[in-house]
Amino acid sequence: YILTVSMPLDCKEEPGSLTRCPSISQEKLLDRVIHHAELIYRVSEESCSLFEEMFIPLPLRLQSNQAGFACITKTLPIPSSKSEIEQISDKWLLHSVLMLVQSWIEPLVYLQTTLDRYDNAPEMLVNKTKWVSEKLVSLEQGVVALIKKMLDEGTFTTTYNEQGLFQYDTLPDMLESVMRDYTLLSCFKKDAHKMETFLKLLKCRQADKYNCA
Amino acid sequence: MMTKVGEVLLLLLLPAFVPHTDGTRYSLPGKPTEIKCRSPEKETFTCWWKPGSDGGLPTTYALYYRKEGSDVVHECPDYHTAGKNSCFFNKNDTVIWVSYNITVVATNALGKTYSDPVDIDVVYIVKPHPPEKLEVTVMKDQGWPFLRVSWEPPRKADTRSGWITLIYELRVKLEEEESEWENHVAGQQKMFNIFSLRSGGTYLIQVRCKPDHGFWSEWSSTSYVKVPECKTSKKCLFSGKSDEVFSALVVSDFPPTTSNYEDLLVEYLEVYVPEQQELMVDEGKDHDGCLKSIGSASDSDSGRGSCDSDNLLMDKSGAAKEEQQQQNQEGDQIGTETQGPKEAWEKETMLCANEDVVSPDASSKKVKTWPSVFSPVTPYSPSPLDPHNSLEMHKQNCLSDTQFPPGSPSSDHCIKKALQSSYWEVCFNNNQPYPQTDVHQQLQAHSDRNISAINDGNVPSNLLLPTRMTEYVEVQRLNEENKVLLHPIPSGHSREKACSWVGHRDNYSKVKGVNSDNVLLLQRDVVEEESMEMAGAAESCYTSSIAINTPKPTTCSHIALPVQEERVLAVSGYVDTATMFSLDT
Questions:
Q1: Is B216 in the A-facing interface, judged by CB distances under 8 Å?
Q2: Are B537 and B490 a contacting pair, CB within 8 Å?
Q3: Which residue segments constitute the domains of chain B, with CATH numbers given?
Q4: Does the entry feature the keyword Secreted, yes or no (chain A) (predicted)?
C-alpha cells in the first residue's frame, strides 16, 4: 500500500493566502499530475489528427487498434491488459507511468526537429508538438515528485530513459519517413492515454481500493 | 591598498559610532517584509519584497528558496527582470509540483536580517494580465440596439490547451458624472451582450479575468462606445439606463416616465380609446412618478404606427414628451440632464391629464382600449383637460418589482409588469394609499372612469380604470365583441407575490395588437427565452426570466404586436423587462 507522508499543514484553498502552505498535499499533487496528463493527451491527439490530415493519405491511416506492434514502448514492462492492470500495485502503476514518460521525452524532441523537414507543416502542429514536448518534461518532474511523496522513494532521474528504445536515422524514403513520424505520433497518443489512465486509476484506488477498474 | 586599509578601519570604527550622540545610529538592516509572489500564467512567477530600514548603511538584498522536500537552498536566479526588490523565476525554475519556501535576507555592514519565510504554491498565486483586444460594437436586434462586447484572453495565458482556465467579468457604465459601474460575470465565454441601452449615450466598458484558483487581473483598458441616437419613427429602443425599465410602445418622442425615480421600476400600460388612444407602456419609478398616459391629440393613426414603427403613441406633445422622456430616462439614478422634477411633473401632468380625455370620451364604440391602466397623475398640477380628473389625486407609482412593501402608504402603487409580456397587469391608481385587496370593489365603486369590465364580463367601451386604486388586473379573455375582459387578480397576487406570477403565465394573454377597428387583440401564447446575459439580481423575481421576444412576422394587415422585452441591466438589484409594443396598421 501507499505510504502517505504526513505533512503538517495543508495549503489553504483560498487564493489570497500567500501564507502557510508548507507543502502540497499528495492528493492535490496527484490531481495536478492527472490534469497535466490529460492536457498532454488531448494535445497529442490533436497533433496526431493534424498530422494525419496533412500528410497521410486515407488508405494508410492507422486504425486505433493497429500500430500497437510498432510502438517503441512495446518492450517496456508495463501492463497492457485489463487484468494485468488490475493486479499491478500502486507502486508499479506509478513506475509504469514514469517509464512511459521518460521513454517519450527524446522521441518528442526528435519529432520537433523532424517537422522542420516537412514543406508545409502547419504552424499549429509545430507549436503543439513543442508544447507537448515541454509539458512532458514537466510531467516527469511531477511524477517523480509524486513517487517521492506517495512511495517515499528517493529522487531518481531518468532511470528509464533507455537510449536503445528509439533510434532515429534518417530514412531515405520520404514516405517511410513520414510513416515513421506518423507512427510515432500515434503511439505517443496511445501512451499518453495510458499515462492518464494509470494515474486516474491510481487516484481511484486512493479513494476506494476495491472498486476501481 | 591604502584605501582598503582605510575601508577596514572605517568598518571597524563604525560600531564605535553606533551609540554616538551625533544622532546617526547604524544598525542592522530592518527585516524585509511583505513578500508577495505572483504568477501571470502559472509558468513563471515573481516575488517582491519590501525592504526594511537600511540601518543607515548600504544594504543589499538576497532571496533564497528551498523546494519542498529538499534541503538544498538556492538563490534567486534573476533579480533584474522584474525590477527592484524582486526575484523572477523563469519557466525552468517554476514547477507546480512542489511548494517553495522563500526567505529574503537584508545585509549591511553590520550583519544580516532575515525576513519571515513564506511558502508559495504557484498554482494559488496566479494573477493574470488583463484580457486583450476588447471590442465593443453596437448591434441591432430587431431595431433595438445592444452592445456586443468581445475580448481575448491575455496573450500569455495558455487557455487553449486548458493549462489555465479563466473566467471573465466585465463592467459598464455611462459616461456621466454620477453613473456607476455595473458588473457582469461572463463565465468562461469571451463575448457578452448588453441590452437596455440609452440612445445617444456613451458607455465605458472594461473587462478582467481570473483563473480558477487565483486573483483577479487588473481591469483592461477602457473601451468607449456611443449608442446612436434614435430617430423618430424608426425602430429604436429607448430605454432608460440599465436600471430603468423600458417602455415601449414608443417612439422616440414617446414620453414619459416620471422623472422622479427611486429604485422602483414601474411599468404600466395605458390604452386609450379611439382617436385618442394610445397604447402605452411606460415606466416610471416610484410613487412619485407619474407615468404618463399620453392622451395627446390623435393623429390619424390613432396611435398605431406604421408597420415598422414603434409609434404607438401619438405624440402630440412630441417635443415635450421627448424631453420628458429624456428626463425620465436619465432619471434620478443616472440622470444628470433632467430638467428637474418639477418640470417633469408639469409635463407629465399634461400628459397624464390627457388620459382623461380618453375616458370620458370613450364611447362605446369600439373597445378599444386597453384599460388605461395607469392613470398617471401628477399631483402637482391639475389637468387642464379634465378638471375633475381624479387623476390629480394620485401619483401613481408603478412598481415593477416585488420589493415594494405592500400596503405602503406612500403609494398608490401601480404595479405593472409585463414581465414576459405574456400578461398584462392593469394598474389602478389609488387616491389614497390603498391596500391592494379589494380590487373588485374598487372597480365597481369607481365612477370616474368606466372601467367596468371586470366583474361583469361586460367590457364597456371605456375601459379606463378607476383611478382609485392600484391593483392588478388580469386579462381573462376577449369576449365576443373583442373586448378585453379584465379580471382582477385575487388579492393573493399582491405585489409581494409578484414572483409567483412568473408561473402564472398561462393566465395571461399577450396583447397582440390593435386591429383596424381599434380592438385590442390578445393572444395567449407565451414566448419566453432566457436571456443569457441576465444579470443576477437576486431580489427581483423578474430576473428569473427575461425574454427577448422576436416579434412574430407580421404583415400590415395582421395586427402584430411585437412584444419585446428588454432586459434592463440590473442595478440595485432590479432587473426588469420593458415591453414594447408596436402597432401595425
A1: no
A2: no
A3: 33-121 (2.60.40.10), 132-241 (2.60.40.10)
A4: yes
